[in-house]
What we know:
Number of helices: 20
Structural class: alpha/beta
Number of strands: 11
Radius of gyration: 27 Å
Shape: globular
Oligomer: single chain
Number of domains: 3
CATH architecture of the largest domain: 3-Layer(aba) Sandwich
CATH superfamily of the largest domain: Glycogen Phosphorylase B
Largest sheet: 7 strands, mixed
Strand content: 5-15%
CATH topology of the largest domain: Rossmann fold
Strand order of the largest sheet: 7-6-5-8-9-11-10
Amino acid sequence: MSAGSDDFKANAPAVPAPAEDATDADPAADKASASDRPPGTAKPVSATTVFEAAVRTHQDGRPEDAIPLYRQILSANPRFAPGWNNLGIALRAAGKVEAAVACLRRGLALDGQDAGAWSNLGNALRMLGRYGEAKAAHLKSLELKPDVGRVHYNLALTYRDLAETDEAMANFERAEELGFDQSEMYWDRALTYLIMGDLGRGFEEYEWRWKLPESPPRFTDRPLWDGGDLAGKTLLVYAEQGFGDAIQFVRFLPMAAAKGGKVVFECPPLLVRLARSSPALEAVELVPADGATPDFDVHLPLLSLARVFGTTLDDIPATAPYLALPAAEDKTPLGGDQLDVGLVWAGKPSHKNDRNRSIPFKTLLPLLDLEGVRYSSLQMGPRADEVSALAAEALIQPIGDRLRDFADTAAVLRGLDLVITVDTAVAHLAGALARPVWTLLPYSPDWRWLYKREDAPWYPTMRLFRQATPGDWDEVVDRVRAALIDFAGEKERK
């Protein structure tokens, strides 16, 4: 999820002194000589100086370090609205979004005419999934100051979350007209085209990702592949994003190999063993991404293959399975008369959208009382401990610690009747293996799941369960439970 653009008060007016104690904020105090102070007494520091230090720290990309400085100022000067604004921005950046909302509201209570602070509040509310409130905050900002491109961009993101795509596109356009010529905006417009299902325009504008500060182009001395004949050439394709993206887009590699020449895929190490055992990738040379870069003539990031091949919603190469294991590696079949279901409830905590996509394990507890269903936890990382924290080991078998790489995970998936997961790499893996998989999605999902559909055009064996209301996972789990009862009944009848 893009964070939106905040109105940061870098040039705020001098911090007013507290009414009852002007000493700490008196600029004249800074000019006092050492001889005017008792020996060993530290020079007083003005609040303005502290604010300037907080601003510098914040601008240096250290919002967590700026937070205590803002708090220091506001402790002495609680009516300093710019301080509340900047503290709110810093808290949001640090993941303390609820506190950010409270701080921004404190500032707006002091200065309700601050258009920038209203939009900042909208950004924080949007991060919490409170999209209606976020929309209202951005509209209030534009009511106070209509021609701010940054705010139109923020509003466009909110409209996208609400699936109000005409309004989203209109605000992207207005932001551009007003001079908000930011790479992040064009990247977000690409994501909007993609979630709308306009893959042609979406993947064209998706190339804006290389203009973002966090993702500079990897190679600049050799040309990008344009999709032409590869005879006599070596094409290097490299994974550029997460595991799920890599699993989703390796489907395009055989199409590149069909262009002649040699195709080398620089593969995430945890995916190498599975990819090498997949017949669909036999024509592709696989090298681990943590090794030396091989020689090549032209190159292309993996996700750009969709653009090169002119992919549309109607011609996604969706034949599955396109990843496969030899039968000898099917080492963890669960078997028996029971319905075997694997569960995953959380992705990497470091993922920018993890707050939106992951759920607590306890949310899935209503599934675990079904008779005739045996559950396995495929959850990895610190969130796997949520099973033991709830003393639920008798209800679900933790096997995540057995999974060394995606080949191990694939072997487990092939022994399951069904996988139920949030939006993680496991969803993509199950789909690529053509295993039955139910993916639980937030109200505002990642672009690849599109709007309102219950199926996934990328994966024929996937069923999507979406939030009907932002943040309401309980209702999703209720629908999953009902569907699971039906699924178990179908197996029994077979």
